[in-house]
Amino acid sequence: MTTDPADTVAAPAPAPTPPRRAPAGAAVLREDVTEAIREAVVEELAAVGFSRMSIEGIARRAGVGKTAVYRRWKSKLHLVLDLVGAFAEDGLPVPATGSLYGDVRALLEVMSHVLRHPVASAVIPDLLVEAARNPEIAEAVRGALLDGQHRMAQGIVGDAVARGELPEGIGPEHALDLLIGPLYWRQAVVRDAVTPAHLDTLAHQVVAGLKAGPGPA
Amino acid sequence: MTTDPADTVAAPAPAPTPPRRAPAGAAVLREDVTEAIREAVVEELAAVGFSRMSIEGIARRAGVGKTAVYRRWKSKLHLVLDLVGAFAEDGLPVPATGSLYGDVRALLEVMSHVLRHPVASAVIPDLLVEAARNPEIAEAVRGALLDGQHRMAQGIVGDAVARGELPEGIGPEHALDLLIGPLYWRQAVVRDAVTPAHLDTLAHQVVAGLKAGPGPA
């Protein structure tokens, strides 16, 4: 891999005991360039969509060379997965309102914002198409989209079990199906707007579903 | 529009009082050619996917000329929407088991088969990408995919209200979100297999959610 002076800075002198540092004298990728590329990707996605987006178009919009992009990500798919992963992590704090209904309602609020976000609405359908064609991509999409959501479902259900609001034995996958599925269906598939009243009803129904437990053995 | 003798048959002599008939002497599209094209589309979709599928490839596989395809559908999108619409209608009889749990469980069974079908898994993600880019396509996809499902949700909920199993006031859209959303999420987004035990639990939870009604006013 070659380095490009315009895209790299000299590594800073080592601090006394940094936890992780670049080798002294090594080229370090400039964070401002990385950030400009990320922003360009969001704009490109909104403008042309995933399938017509090119590394060249991203580089042009970011005002950098194509190598600056390839130095960081090996393909546009990897770039977008990285972006979606970061976005999914940022957007999904585990709610802790003190009640199951409150937590579910807060989760639905956050998720409905996430699903309305241009990155999500422009790129998730495309990623699912790629995932349908290629098991390796399917795995990467699962990791980027679902790991954070799993942790969140586990947090909400675990807290409710600890408070005595839910029976034990509900797997996080089951919980996530109920927590996310109906909202995803409405916003990403049917593409209907959701109102606060709709989210209230949905939270009420999801809580009732979760309280029903895993069902007769 | 020109007619092609190999693709048309003379209209039959009018029967005494047919409810709808072709004008005497008009060219009628041959049903066996239409069927061959439909089959070719299913095979093409499985082989190359929606975005790389071409009218030319479909015609070649069906052993017909491109005009035979264009005489029936104006684009590959219209062709696929027609196919999906027919498929969604066929696959979705309204269950009538005599109980809400039975109806919901039967619906989940049918839907999980539909979502595993190659046409559905190959083409729905692509249609949703098209829908995200183009409101006209979004409307057509809604019609093709959702009209039958709405009728079905209305049937199940209406029967349960009549039996006294459900309160009144649950809109079919809300019901559909709960009935389809969690399964769609698992099979089409997460792409995890579902087991009969999983469907049992999900039916149990969906029934509890529906019974909770629209929630506090």
From TrEMBL, chains A, B:
DNA-binding region range list: 54-73
Domain HTH tetR-type per the UniProt entry, residue ranges: 31-91
Annotated region described as Disordered, given as residue ranges: 1-24
GO MF annotation terms: DNA-binding transcription factor activity; transcription cis-regulatory region binding
Bias (Low complexity) ranges: 1-12
Pfam families xrefs: TetR_C_11 (PF16859), TetR_N (PF00440)
Transcription is among the record's keywords: yes
InterPro entries registered for this protein in UniProt: DNA-bd_HTH_TetR-type_CS, Homeodomain-like_sf, HTH-type_TetR-like_transc_reg, HTH_TetR, Tet_transcr_reg_TetR-rel_C_sf, TetR_C
Alphabetical keyword list: DNA-binding, Transcription, Transcription regulation
PROSITE patterns the record matches: HTH_TETR_1, HTH_TETR_2
Cited PANTHER family: HTH-TYPE TRANSCRIPTIONAL REGULATOR RUTR, TETR-FAMILY TRANSCRIPTIONAL REGULATOR
Official protein name in the record: TetR family transcriptional regulator
Organism from which the protein derives: Streptomyces subrutilus
Lineage start: Bacteria, Bacillati, Actinomycetota, Actinomycetes, Kitasatosporales
